Amino acid sequence: MDAEQITMLREVLSTTGWLERTGEFGRALRVTSRTPGGLLLVGTPGGDPWHLAAHLDDESRLGDVPGLAPTLVRWAPPADAPAHLRVGLERLEAARRGETLFVVAEEDAPVPLLERVDDARRTGATILALEGGDRELRGLAHEALTVPPDEALMSFDGAQHLVSAAAGQEPARTPRGIRHRLARLLDAVSGPVVD
Questions:
Q1: Which of 17, 50, 97, 182 has its CA 20 to 30 A from that of 76?
Q2: Conformational region of residue 19, where left means phi above 0, alpha means psi within -120 to 50, and beta covers everything else
Q3: How many Cα neighbours within 13 Å face the side chain of 116?
Q4: Distance CA 130, CA 22 (A)
Q5: 42-82: per-residue pLDDT in tens?
Q6: pLDDT in tens, 158-184
Q7: Beta strands in 34-154 (DSSP E)
């Protein structure tokens, strides 16, 4: 998906609530992913989240947010793959406080993955899950976004695009001048606070 397609998708979804949900989840991803190399992205045995990894890497680079560059954790990495594509599930066993484990599972996560997610949570890692209705995975996650398989307006792939785009956006900040003027206006209307 390119920027124009994302814009069209946002227009179609503007009144559905999906933009708000994917936006909140993307912001949670941005806030928790601060350590370079500490965003661990894992899928299920049936699918590594390659596409999402590429988008997050782009958002990291373009937005100068090093923590969003994911470490793609794979179920069966080939021994002859480049080092960044050879990271196996054992990396989840080393997850610690300050790191984020982002599980992308359109189908139910298998028990071995759920066990590793639980262990990572116990050692202090933040758990995020983009899932298709897996209650067990959702129960382990600090933040979860569910895209039901029968959802007519949002595909699992579309949610990944919106989440990565939202994660790459810098949070809006209110300029100090406006905040100061608003506070003065409120004092004028309601009177100063007296202790």
A1: 97
A2: alpha
A3: 23
A4: 10
A5: 999 988 999 999 999 999 999 999 999 999 999 999 899 88
A6: 999 999 999 998 876 545 555 555 555
A7: 39-42, 70-73, 100-105, 126-131, 143-146
